[in-house]
Amino acid sequence: MSATPDCKHPAGTFVPVIARGKCEGKEDCVEVCPYDVFTVGRISDEDFAALGFFEKLKSRVHGRKTAYTPNAAACQACGKCVTACPEKAITLRRLPTLGPT
Ligand code: SF4
Q1: In the prediction, which pLDDT does 21 show?
Q2: Protein residue with least CA distance to atom 3, ligand 1
Q3: Residue nearest to atom 7 of ligand 1 (CA)
């Protein structure tokens, strides 16, 4: 992707977290992320089983599609996915920093 990222933090500082029950697999995150963090595919059986009753119904309606973050380590916390997600399903979580050894 050729977008100019508005990076706020170096990679490895934040990761995107997807609220599985909200995500409808619409792929806006895939399109906006400058670092190819996301893929959209079929929800895993384990993740599907963890959904609530109505979340399962919603997931079926949307073809059991959901977003995953196989390249989360590349996230630079630009926030584009958070803004783009129509379901408000993405938040950024700061990773714990390693203390002095
Ligand atoms: S905040 Fe979202 S869009 Fe920006 S780099 Fe991280 S995963 Fe990609």
Answers
A1: 95
A2: 33
A3: 75
Task: Quick: pLDDT tens for 13-69.
Answer: 999 999 999 999 999 999 999 999 999 999 999 999 999 999 999 999 999 999 999
CATH for the stretch 14-92:
3.30.70.20
Instruction: Supply the residue whose CA is at minimum distance from atom 8 of ligand 1.
Output: 33
Tokens of 98: 């390693």
Q: How far is the CA of 69 from the centre of ligand 1 (A)?
A: 10
